Q: What sequence folds into this?
């Protein structure tokens, strides 16, 4: 697997990050443009708080983990200045989007704006030791925990009690976010959260009869025979499994590690499109029609998270199925998403693998999944020379 290390590192440093450094920084008003066409042309100037936070995290993480490049640190700090000046309401909750100059456009209905604001500022605090970044990251994390049982609050459009479902996305993100903020919230806080998060992910949302994790379940963890209750998002499951693998490694828990690998492999088998290749975006656990019309699209982040998961699975356990899947995913992903001409990766393919959109960024895609995955893959594969041994 050594041949992949240099290729993924080169893709990160020579093809992906230069694209964002060149095209995304708003030098007039601050923050980042994320609506970028194939060649980096800005096609919309709205700024989405969760993507601003993600780019701050990416630049800060690379400065911390790869190389102390001034450009990365400056990128992160100017993004943080824009967010701190404009991004929150009077309660400290983060808006979903602002216009270019920083005026709010969409209310703070989406708790993932808060998750990635906290994550980005926490990473920036690590490389600058500036108290404001750490304090806002900490305060935001506390608000996330306070809101986790009703994340949308007054913006929740569901009628209460008739069908009260809980979603998988937030506990999945908290499993990673808590580790990202350990230097701020402390190890005791992280460990207390991790126990519950592992239980939620691996027991509450996990369905014993299928061996898969559902996107939504009833409050007691039982199956809901409804559009939302039958929904499977293979990308979310696979991403969550590498988060869980990292927790299993942290604790030396072999049983948890093996369960993660088993669920990830089962999900790939379930989600893979045998006719055209690639991982389907959504499926119904009972094989019924789904309500998401984009169900058969192939998305960049799903395949990148699968690459990370299989790389980690192979490094942590030596399971050859992980290696085989990694190589299969690598061929599909680089063959369909990567753009060696203009840099970065395409985001959206149709079922047959053709580009649906030329964009490299937008409302949902920013400077995050591609660079993070490339970094996680090559650093994981570097560990193959020193295999990790689990004790339990």
A:
């Amino acid at each position: 697997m050594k041949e992949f290390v240099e290729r993924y590192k080169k893709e990160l440093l020579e093809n992906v990050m230069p694209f964002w450094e060149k095209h995304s920084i708003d030098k007039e008003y601050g923050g980042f443009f994320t609506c970028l066409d194939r060649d980096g042309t800005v096609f919309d100037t709205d700024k989405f708080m969760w993507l601003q936070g993600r780019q701050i995290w990416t630049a800060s993480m690379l400065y911390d983990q790869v190389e102390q490049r001034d450009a990365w640190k400056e990128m992160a700090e100017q993004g943080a200045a824009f967010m701190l000046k404009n991004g929150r309401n009077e309660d400290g909750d983060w808006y979903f989007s602002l216009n270019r100059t920083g005026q709010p456009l969409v209310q703070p209905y989406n708790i993932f704006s808060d998750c990635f604001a906290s994550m980005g500022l926490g990473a920036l605090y690590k490389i600058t030791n500036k108290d404001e970044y750490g304090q806002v990251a900490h305060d935001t994390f506390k608000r996330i925990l306070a809101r986790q049982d009703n994340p949308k609050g007054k913006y929740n459009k569901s009628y209460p009690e008739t069908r009260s479902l809980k979603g998988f996305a937030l506990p999945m993100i908290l499993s990673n976010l808590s580790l990202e903020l350990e230097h701020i919230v402390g190890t005791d806080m992280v460990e207390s959260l991790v126990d519950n998060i592992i239980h939620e992910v691996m027991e509450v949302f996990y369905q014993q009869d299928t061996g898969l994790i559902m996107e939504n379940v009833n409050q007691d963890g039982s199956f809901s025979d409804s559009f939302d209750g039958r929904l499977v998002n293979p990308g979310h499951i696979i991403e969550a499994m590498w988060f869980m693998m990292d927790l299993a490694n942290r604790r030396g828990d072999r049983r948890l590690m093996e369960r993660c690998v088993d669920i990830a492999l089962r999900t790939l088998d379930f989600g893979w499109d045998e006719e055209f290749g690639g991982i389907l975006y959504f499926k119904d656990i009972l094989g019924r029609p789904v309500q998401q019309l984009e169900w058969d699209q192939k998305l960049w982040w799903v395949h990148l998270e699968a690459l990370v998961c299989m790389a980690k699975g192979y490094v942590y356990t030596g399971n050859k199925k992980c290696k085989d899947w990694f190589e299969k995913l690598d061929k599909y992903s680089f063959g369909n998403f990567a753009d060696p001409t203009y840099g970065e990766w395409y985001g959206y393919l149709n079922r047959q693998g053709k580009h649906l959109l030329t964009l490299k960024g937008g409302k949902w895609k920013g400077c995050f999944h591609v660079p993070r995955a490339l970094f996680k893959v090559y650093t994981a594969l570097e560990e193959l020379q020193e295999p990790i041994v689990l004790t339990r």
